[in-house]
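Team,

Forwarding the record for the chain on the shared tracking sheet. I've put the sequence and predicted structure together so nobody has to dig through attachments.
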Amino acid sequence: MPEAPRQARARAADLQQQINHHNYRYYVLDDPEVPDSEYDRLMRELQQLEADYPALITRDSPTQRVGAEPLEAFAEVQHAVPMLSLGNAFSEEDMLDFDARARKQLGAGASISYAAEPKLDGLAISLRYEHGILVQAATRGDGKRGEDVSSNVRTIPSIPLRLLGEDWPEVLEARGEIFIPRKGFDELNQRARSRGEKVFANPRNAAAGSLRQLDPRVTAARPLAFYCYGYGAVSSGDLASTYSGCISVLKSLGIPVSPELAVLQDVNACMDYYRRLGERRDVLDYDIDGVVFKVNSLAQQAELGFVSRAPRWAVAHKFPAQEALTRVLDVEFQVGRTGAITPVARLEPVSVGGVTVSNATLHNMDEVEKKDVRAGDIVFVRRAGDVIPEVVRVLQERRPEGTRPVTLPSRCPVCDSEVIRTESEVVARCSGGLYCAAQRKEAIRHFSSRLAMDIEGLGDKLVQQLIEQDWVHDPADLYSLTLEQLAGLERMGRKSAQNLLDALETSKQTSLSHFLYALGRREVGEATSQTLARRFGSLRALREADEEDLQQTPDVGPVVAAHVASFFRQQHNREVMDKLLQAGITWQESVPASTPDQAPLSGQTFVLTGSLSQPRSRIKSRLESHGARVSGSVSGKTSYLVAGEAAGSKLEKARSLGVQILDEAALERLLENL
């Protein structure tokens, strides 16, 4: 093993420090300083150095996230400080009782402030750092003993292998929750369905199953994340005098904490926080099942002490259950934009998590057959976020006599075309294409959506009327509609009709990435559309690309490349694109970039503020197509502030920091000169 020269050792240490700093900015502060391409470049350089000089590899190196050999079993870990459970509150009365008990024990006139944060629906974990290095990770287990899952936890990007700075305790146990964000969970299940594998019932089960894999490489492929909510053993004693202060110290060491943490002055503020977070529950990127309230003062926590296995100074105020029992009235089949035939359970209405639910997705026929869902069954229904609920399982013991298994229809329920299910796909599809009114409707809806062509005023009911009138067979037909046609539709009128025509005209000025996304190709979302637009620069170049060339694009693998190439090979798709271009849709084409850091605005950060004449999503897409990053806040790293009318505090901050300020005209000139 060759000894690393001094210059290589110094460079490796510098790269580790830079990457750890960028991980902190990304995972803890949610404010990255560099684009992904620069981060990847630093990581590649460190990997190459370590490959050339293996002696440089340290256990806390950012490269050491994956690669441990599979385990035969998990070792047992004795927790130095027990991992306790929490008492629950299910109503405002329970919260008032909790507060009254604490005040009574602390004495008359005691002033109590509370720290509040979401109760994540994941898996509790304890991370042990010695001299700033992660040496062990253990599950909660029974509270006294857990399982050693160190090899798996080391693969989670948001968990630091080395704490920031140098001023850390000799021993520090950070405790928190490992979870899977909703977006990652959806993508994980989608990949499983495409491979015909079992899907996870919910993100918590997925997180728990991922963490307890004997092969760390499996864990590394799962989108796990971590938030810290406290600590166990600390060799230097308490980190601060308050819980919120301790969390702030942990955050400064590079450990991710909940951005929702708040300090509240009394129990009434706690209940207000609970209601407000409950209203936002569905828009969070992770599942929560309540709010944890903790007495903020550590001195008061010590005085309150514990009862049985739970502290007297903390309580989990739970949200209403998001699972309920109901009866399946029927199983019907819906047709989506790509022709996918999706089974949907029609249910006896039931309240789930405060929302009345009457429909639940069954995903595909494999799911229907595996769960054996039938009309008449009593089922558990789960609602997570604002997506359509799903049937979790059937109570077979309560199945009535005479039920029949659900079968896939051989003909499309909308257009009567043949339904096809290939061996390579889990999903069955209608073969009707744009002949099928359901696919046509969904294609038009997608084409006009905000992230696509952003055609304001083109809602579901209007799209349905246009299809029923047989005026629109593909998206290009939208641009041939006349004032007389539209004004004669139900609930339209000439003013509304003219507004829609104006919106159609405005939509013609777009970006290549918006146009690509609007076409609605399978497996190609907003991010991939932006990547393809940046990589090829023009529609013509993209239409001529083969699968091998497409796979040279970041994040485009064989499956996506095959779908894209197939789409552009189809003559009817090429005809629709030509019609759209002939209708006047245009955009500013850019110089193709083989890698993102070759784009003309790579490394530049823009902030948009004030009232702008174009939708912000469109301006953002244009900037990103040239490699720029668009941020929501002004900082010393901001390159340009694009200011519209009535710009406020962001404009003032930009001026104070010396950030270059552009109006829309100046932005247009900048983009035209690229």
